[in-house]
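STRUCTURE:
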């Protein structure tokens, strides 16, 4: 599994995931569990939705 997420993408997913989970806890809703998806993809560094389209937000390293 090749990483396809850059640092900004991962940071935004962590923030969004935490906000969704906290709102789920505040409103006592199981919908807060949806926030675990962006958290998981951010920590793994791979987004399965990007894979079929061969998208990547990760900066390409230049060979030295």
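SEQUENCE:
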């Amino acid at each position: 599994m090749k990483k396809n997420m850059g640092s900004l993408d991962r940071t935004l997913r962590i923030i969004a995931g935490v906000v969704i989970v906290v709102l789920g806890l505040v409103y006592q809703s199981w919908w807060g569990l949806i926030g675990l998806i962006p958290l998981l993809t951010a920590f793994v560094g791979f987004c399965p939705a990007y894979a079929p389209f061969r998208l990547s937000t990760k900066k390409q390293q230049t060979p030295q």
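REMARK: The chain has a mean pLDDT of 93.
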